[in-house]
User: Fold this.
Amino acid sequence: MTDPYPDIEEETEGSAEGLRTFRLIAILAIALVAGIALLAWLGGGGHRDQQPAGYPDALGGPFELTAPDGSTVTDKTLAGKPFAIFFGFTRCPDVCPTTLSRLAQLRKRMGADGDRFAIVFVSVDPGHDTPQDVGRYVGLFGTPIIGLTGTAGQLAQIVKAYRVYYRKVPVEGGDYTIDHTAGVYLMDRAGKLQSVIEYDEGADVSLAKLKRLAGR
Ligand code: NI
Assistant:
C-alpha cells in the first residue's frame, strides 16, 4: 500500500514519532467503536431497555395537549400502553402522510397485535391546525390514531421533552411550511423511549420494531 502522506514521515524524528502515535490511537479508536457496535448487535436481543444510538436516555416526559373532542390528553392518559408518537402538521405534503400511511399498513400486517400499542400524531402547527382539524386528518388513514395539538406553550413543552426539531419556513405568498423531525418515537408502557422508526428504513425493519413495542 502506498503511503498517502510520504512528505510528513520525512520530517523530523519527533513528528514521525507523533504520526505513528496518532495512527496507533486512530486504529485503537476504530477497533473500539467496531467492538462496541458488534457487542451491541450481538447483545441486542437481550438488552431490551437499551436506548437507540444517537438518542438521549431522557427522551419523553410530562406533557398536556388537546384531543379533537376538546378533552385534555397528558402523558398519564397514555401511560400503561406503549405508543408510537410522531410530530408534524396536517398540511405536510409528504413526510407526515407517508409516515402515518406506513404505520397504518404495518399495524394491519400485525393483526390483533397491532392493537397492543397506540399511534399518536401531534401537530406542531397551532397557527393552522385546530384540534378538530387534527382529528379529521388522522381519520384519513384507516386506523385509530390519537390526534393532538395544543397552545404554543404546551407544544413547546412536549417538543422539548421529545427533542423534536421543527422550524417554520416561509414560502411564496406569505404562507409557510414546516420542516420537522421525521422519526417515529416508540415509547414503552412506562413512557420510556424503546426505539425509533427512521423515515428511510425498510418496512420489515420498522415492523420488527413495532412487534417489539407490542411485546411480540
Ligand atoms: Ni410532515
Observations:
- The beta strands are 64-66, 72-74, 83-88, 118-123, 146-148, 166-170, 176-180, 184-187, 193-197.
- The pocket of nickel (II) ion is lined by residues 88-89, 92, 95-96, 180 (CB under 6 Å).
